[in-house]
Amino acid sequence: MATKVHMEALSPTMEEGQLVQWLKSEGDDIANGDILAEIETDKATMELVARGDGVLRKIFLDAGGTAPVGSVIGVIAAADEDISGIEGVDGGGASAAPVEAPTPEAAAAAPAPVAAAPVAPPAPAAPAQSEGGRVKASPLARRLAEEAGVDLARIAGSGPGGRVVKRDVEAAKEAGVAMPSAPSWTMDGAEYEDVPTSQMRKTIAKRLVTSIGPVPTFYLTMDVDMSRVMEARKSINAMLERDGGKISINDIVLKATAAALRQHPNCNAQWHDGFIRRFNAVHIGVAVAVEDGLITPIVRNAEMKGIVQIGAEVKELAGRAREKKLMPEEYTGATFSVSNLGMFGIHEFTAIINPPEAGILAVGGIEDTAVVVDGQVAVRPRMKITMSCDHRVIDGAQGSRFLQTLKGMLEEPTAIVL
Amino acid sequence: MAVITYREALNQALREEMERDPDVFLIGEEVAEYDGAYKVSKGLLAEFGDQRVVDSPISELGFTGLGVGAAMAGLRPVVEFMTFNFAFLAIDQVINSAAKMHYMSEGQFSMPLVFRGPTGAALQLSAQHSQACETYYSHAPGCKVVTPGTPADAKGLLKAAIRDNDPVAFMEGETLYNLKGEVPEDDDFIIPLGVADLKREGGDVSIITHGKMIHVALQAAAKLEKDGIEADVLDLRTIRPLDMDAILATVKKTNRAVYLEEGWPYAGTGAQIVSMIQEEAFDDLDAPLLRVTQADIPMPYAKNLESLAKPSAGHVIEAVKKVLYR
User: Fold this and answer.
1) Tens digits of per-residue pLDDT, B280-309?
2) Which of A358, A396, B97, B149 is the most exposed place for a label (fewest CB within 10 A)?
3) What does pTM read for this prediction?
4) A/B interface, count of CB pairs below 8 Å
5) Which CATH code fits B2-183?
6) Are A304 and A273 within 8 A, CB to CB?
7) ipTM attached to this prediction
8) CB count, 10 Å around CB of B308?
């Protein structure tokens, strides 16, 4: 008699759990009560114990993957028992884990987001995405999704094995209208360009990795005069006052970063084995401190959004981040990140790159500083920005040019709209 | 319209066609003096005489060959098999002679010949007498295969089969002979071969079937209705030629289908049809096509085992819920 291994509710409020690691492998003998795996709940990392004897025949959820409570994540059965009829959650998250880390600092223990669905009909609803990125969907569902312009990978399948079927596409279509917070964002070919890695780049990558670790990082710092940004913020906020709206300096920094990245696609890029992926769209991960760590929700297509919209999105995402209510696709897939510790009185710092992104900008606080302007000492609000660059992707000169552009935009904000 | 039995409907068809065309004659075991093993030929001997209603010896291969020869000579024989279970003895004449004659003679001979009789299981007739044989005949190009499930279809299709210039295996149901139904009284009531009939209109799922299984399908559909599931029940009526347009129409409407047949699954009629559906309507499918068939075993004699081996409304409901992801 086969025993299904379920994602158990290991905390009173747990709705889904992330598989930190399996302590048993497929093929291992299991006795009732053995610790099978470590599960990260919304509160802590807990042990999942076996509820039956036999052999761990099947693992459905790889380390790093997330599954809703109650879903089947493994099977314990006799060695020769037919378990083909048992369907588990489709949560092979292993391949995604190393590259989809949600926060720079937490990269080592990165949760592998199973790109969860904006709409989840009942049932264990992990999206039907397998390792190769193939989505299980009925032929009709594929056709309907294409006609409706819905990305199948973002739909939770309610059919067997997570197959996306007609009703799932229809539900997604409806929810898409009703859920403005779900960005209609897809990572398709038009969004980026994969540039094959040249021999020189390969050598640079290889040598530097040997020298400094898997992400050979160097840092570039620039001093920015923020007087014009502060003026701009003041006048924008005066205009917004009527509606109760407000933007922050950081919102302007984000907008300027997005605009500058548009001009420097080599900094808006990711390192992949064999190629460098340069993005046309700018998806900025914004580091947000939460109670027990940090998370980087993403402002999608920041280059196309206005400062007010960026500000509103950051506020909304940060709020939900603190409540731990972000959907995985809301914090994975950034093309560049920004971390701002100015509010803590930090003058300048370096941030750690969140692979496979190639850059992150560390933003310090604005401080009144004595500087020389036109031969005279003047007091100006100054801010230090430090960019961490993955040297495999970005060279010193490229990073510097990007920072020059960014500095120019911050010192003359009208340049952002050029 | 008169309400008559399936048996009477067949009898009417034979009588009307024999009256209409003196070349039509009936041959088979006990068709004359005994009025037929299932009384389908009741009264025909008295009406048409022993030149046109001919009792044969118990030699299926022999009298079937005789029918083939008569067709080549220009007559329109109706060869009755007491059951298609016994026609294995004659299948050489059907497949190797009748089905190929037109082709191999380069059209010199047509083969206006009907082989008819019951097929499939009745009740506790055991393995050799409980076989749905239609697949054997539909497998070979050159033979048409008709499986009427209602009295009206039986009459209209038999008349069409007799008037057809190709060999037709006309496969009745032993348990259908007493089935009553409305049948048009028109002498020229013809149902063309190769036209399916939507026996029930639903929209949620397509149950496609043929022969006496339409009644199992309708029973399943009635039960499904109570669960809020509306099923299309498509009766193919003719397995070959096949009404692919009707099949595609219902599948494109419901996006899912279950094929129900009385026979075995392996290389069965359903196997052919689901293959054709996925070829031609792949992008309309929301679920795998499923089949409900007899268990893949010789029919057991034991009553309880026999009823488990036969496809039932319960099996159909199970399959329907599966393709509806319920």
Assistant:
1) 999 999 999 999 999 999 999 999 999 999
2) A396
3) 0.54
4) 27
5) 3.40.50.970
6) no
7) 0.73
8) 13
